[in-house]
Amino acid sequence: MAEIRIRNTDERIQGEENVRAFLESQEVLYEHWNPSKLREELQEKFVLSDEEKQEVLNTFDEEIRDLAARRGYRTWDVITLSEATPNLEELLAKFENVHTHTEDEVRAITAGKGIFIIKGSDDVGYFDVELTAGDVISVPENKPHFFTLMENKQIVAVRLFIEPEGWIAHPHNDPNFQK
Ligand SMILES: [Fe+2]
């Protein structure tokens, strides 16, 4: 279940309703899918064949289509990241820069863990959203953020898009951001 850490105060926000309410106040959509719908073997597998990726999409087809219909997403796919990913460290180094997009960045975690670091309102500042399997997040367009893995370095997520071009990252150079 998702957990929030506000970087300036180290305050933590836990519990589905509290997390949802906080994220809503920051204009970030948060939902939860049932991760145990996925075949048990796939709940702990981070290198997937095309057939297995399709199985992930099929398992959550209803949830994906429901979210897509509500928010206008038109395409979706599955990404995997783990120590088996070629050039993982390079990829992570590239990810770990604050940026924005011209459309929502949507991730539904189906296995593993990850963190979104998001620039909140002026009174909150940057906060971390730690996501585990079942957590679904949509960071709105033009909201500065980046994504990285947690210490286990393993994740499988469904991504949803309006237009593939909307996903291009625009750097957000913020002198106030500290890693
Ligand atoms: Fe992004």
From TrEMBL:
<feature type="binding site">
    <location>
        <position position="101"/>
    </location>
    <ligand>
        <name>Ni(2+)</name>
    </ligand>
</feature>
<feature type="binding site">
    <location>
        <position position="105"/>
    </location>
    <ligand>
        <name>Ni(2+)</name>
    </ligand>
</feature>
<keyword id="KW-0408">Iron</keyword>
<comment type="pathway">
    <text>Amino-acid biosynthesis; L-methionine biosynthesis via salvage pathway; L-methionine from S-methyl-5-thio-alpha-D-ribose 1-phosphate: step 5/6.</text>
</comment>
<keyword id="KW-0479">Metal-binding</keyword>
<protein>
    <recommendedName>
        <fullName>Acireductone dioxygenase</fullName>
        <ecNumber>1.13.11.54</ecNumber>
        <ecNumber>1.13.11.53</ecNumber>
    </recommendedName>
</protein>
<comment type="subunit">
    <text>Monomer.</text>
</comment>
<feature type="binding site">
    <location>
        <position position="145"/>
    </location>
    <ligand>
        <name>Fe(2+)</name>
    </ligand>
</feature>
<feature type="binding site">
    <location>
        <position position="105"/>
    </location>
    <ligand>
        <name>Fe(2+)</name>
    </ligand>
</feature>
<dbReference type="GO" id="GO:0019284">
    <property type="term" value="P:L-methionine salvage from S-adenosylmethionine"/>
</dbReference>
<comment type="function">
    <text>Catalyzes 2 different reactions between oxygene and the acireductone 1,2-dihydroxy-3-keto-5-methylthiopentene (DHK-MTPene) depending upon the metal bound in the active site. Fe-containing acireductone dioxygenase (Fe-ARD) produces formate and 2-keto-4-methylthiobutyrate (KMTB), the alpha-ketoacid precursor of methionine in the methionine recycle pathway. Ni-containing acireductone dioxygenase (Ni-ARD) produces methylthiopropionate, carbon monoxide and formate, and does not lie on the methionine recycle pathway.</text>
</comment>
<keyword id="KW-0533">Nickel</keyword>
<dbReference type="InterPro" id="IPR023956">
    <property type="entry name" value="ARD_bac"/>
</dbReference>
<keyword id="KW-0560">Oxidoreductase</keyword>
<comment type="similarity">
    <text>Belongs to the acireductone dioxygenase (ARD) family.</text>
</comment>
<feature type="binding site">
    <location>
        <position position="101"/>
    </location>
    <ligand>
        <name>Fe(2+)</name>
    </ligand>
</feature>
<feature type="binding site">
    <location>
        <position position="145"/>
    </location>
    <ligand>
        <name>Ni(2+)</name>
    </ligand>
</feature>
<keyword id="KW-0028">Amino-acid biosynthesis</keyword>
<dbReference type="GO" id="GO:0016151">
    <property type="term" value="F:nickel cation binding"/>
</dbReference>
<dbReference type="GO" id="GO:0010309">
    <property type="term" value="F:acireductone dioxygenase [iron(II)-requiring] activity"/>
</dbReference>
<dbReference type="InterPro" id="IPR004313">
    <property type="entry name" value="ARD"/>
</dbReference>
<dbReference type="InterPro" id="IPR011051">
    <property type="entry name" value="RmlC_Cupin_sf"/>
</dbReference>
<dbReference type="GO" id="GO:0019509">
    <property type="term" value="P:L-methionine salvage from methylthioadenosine"/>
</dbReference>
<keyword id="KW-0223">Dioxygenase</keyword>
<keyword id="KW-0486">Methionine biosynthesis</keyword>
<feature type="site" description="May play a role in transmitting local conformational changes">
    <location>
        <position position="104"/>
    </location>
</feature>
<dbReference type="Pfam" id="PF03079">
    <property type="entry name" value="ARD"/>
</dbReference>
<dbReference type="InterPro" id="IPR014710">
    <property type="entry name" value="RmlC-like_jellyroll"/>
</dbReference>
<dbReference type="GO" id="GO:0005506">
    <property type="term" value="F:iron ion binding"/>
</dbReference>
<feature type="binding site">
    <location>
        <position position="99"/>
    </location>
    <ligand>
        <name>Ni(2+)</name>
    </ligand>
</feature>
<dbReference type="GO" id="GO:0010308">
    <property type="term" value="F:acireductone dioxygenase (Ni2+-requiring) activity"/>
</dbReference>
<feature type="site" description="Important to generate the dianion">
    <location>
        <position position="107"/>
    </location>
</feature>
<feature type="binding site">
    <location>
        <position position="99"/>
    </location>
    <ligand>
        <name>Fe(2+)</name>
    </ligand>
</feature>
